[in-house]
């Protein structure tokens, strides 16, 4: 009898140590607070939905790898990643079809028809420059400028074999140098030359390192530069390189057999709601529902003439080509 009482007491003690509302949780892979104002959106989930979504600092490649590793026993409920990784997640059967609020308003090409992935916002690749950290050098205006000796040790880019923003930057550079999704040789040759200029190559978001001046020039999205300028008051500029660039979407998916699937669906509905989309616009991203972009938010972007140098890409083909590019980058550059 005393043994049973002891076991019961231990069970009650363990239960008391657990969160009181553990069911009011959703796990999102790759929702880093320093990226795209996910920090603010996570607070919105808690305030408006009563759902706690912990911060997660994975990148897109790490997210997909984790989903694959946990396929038989999923931990995450939703995932956020660059579009090519969303396409690969569907192919790997680690996500479920789900059509959130406003799904029908998402343009064709920016969603899987069944809802296995769908764009929530997009960004344009360019140069995020801390002007105070250039040591007297001019703000670079082109991809070719990054190879100049005055920028030695100043240029950073996220690892393109893992982080989606790194791969998107490689796609932009490769196309600007005359390559295509069938031929990455011009881009590989560019990265070989850039390696001689001692670039900094982190695996995850490097926003704080640009603000501190540790990375004066980062190949990154417009929204991070605008955030630094308008929210953090930093002396930064965003440059769309003269040779051209790409605009690419970030997408979300419902994880297959996630432990808190209903909460995961609520999170996806929220990010696609008018309020959720307005949050992205106010964080300097282009919401996939264009009407969510206010005039005030749009006014903080570079002029349309600059964005005319930004072009879309075949995202399905971009996903198909990603593995081959990563192999070449790892064997020929890194």
From TrEMBL:
Query: What SUPFAM superfamilies would the database entry show?
Result: Periplasmic binding protein-like II
The alphabetized UniProt keywords are: Signal
The region annotated as signal peptide is 1-22
| Gene3D superfamilies according to UniProt | Periplasmic binding protein-like II
- GO molecular-function terms, A-Z: thiamine binding; thiamine pyrophosphate binding
**Cellular component, GO annotation:** outer membrane-bounded periplasmic space
- What's the domain of life for this entry? Bacteria
Return the protein name. ABC transporter substrate-binding protein
UniProt source species: Thalassospira profundimaris
């Amino acid at each position: 009898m005393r043994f049973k009482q002891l076991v019961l007491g231990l069970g009650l003690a363990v239960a008391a140590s657990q969160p009181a509302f553990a069911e009011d949780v959703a796990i999102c892979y790759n929702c880093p607070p320093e990226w795209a104002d996910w920090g603010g959106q996570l607070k919105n989930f808690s305030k408006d939905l009563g759902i706690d979504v912990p911060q997660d600092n994975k990148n897109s490649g790490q997210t997909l790898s984790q989903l694959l590793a946990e396929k038989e026993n999923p931990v995450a409920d939703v995932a956020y990643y660059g579009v090519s990784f969303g396409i690969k997640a569907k192919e790997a059967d680690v996500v479920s079809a789900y059509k959130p609020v406003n799904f029908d308003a998402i343009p064709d090409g920016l969603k899987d028809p069944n809802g296995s992935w769908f764009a929530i916002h997009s960004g344009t690749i360019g140069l995020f420059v801390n002007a105070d950290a250039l040591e007297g050098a001019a703000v670079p205006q082109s991809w070719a400028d990054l190879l100049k000796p005055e920028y030695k040790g100043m240029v950073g880019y996220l690892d393109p074999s893992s982080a989606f923003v790194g791969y998107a930057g490689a796609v932009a550079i490769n196309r600007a140098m005359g390559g295509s999704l069938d031929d990455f040789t011009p881009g590989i040759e560019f990265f070989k030359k850039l390696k001689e200029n001692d670039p900094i190559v982190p695996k995850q978001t490097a926003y704080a390192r640009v603000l501190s001046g540790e990375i004066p020039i980062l190949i990154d999205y417009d929204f991070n530069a605008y955030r630094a300028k308008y929210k953090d008051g930093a002396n930064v500029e965003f440059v769309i390189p003269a040779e051209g660039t790409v605009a690419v979407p970030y997408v979300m998916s419902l994880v297959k057999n996630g432990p808190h699937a209903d909460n995961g669906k609520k999170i996806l509905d929220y990010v696609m709601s008018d309020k959720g989309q307005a949050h992205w616009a106010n964080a300097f991203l282009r919401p996939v529902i264009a009407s969510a972009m206010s005039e005030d938010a749009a006014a903080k972007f570079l002029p349309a003439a600059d964005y005319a140098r930004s072009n879309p890409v075949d995202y399905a083909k971009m996903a198909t080509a990603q593995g081959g590019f990563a192999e070449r980058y790892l064997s020929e550059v890194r």
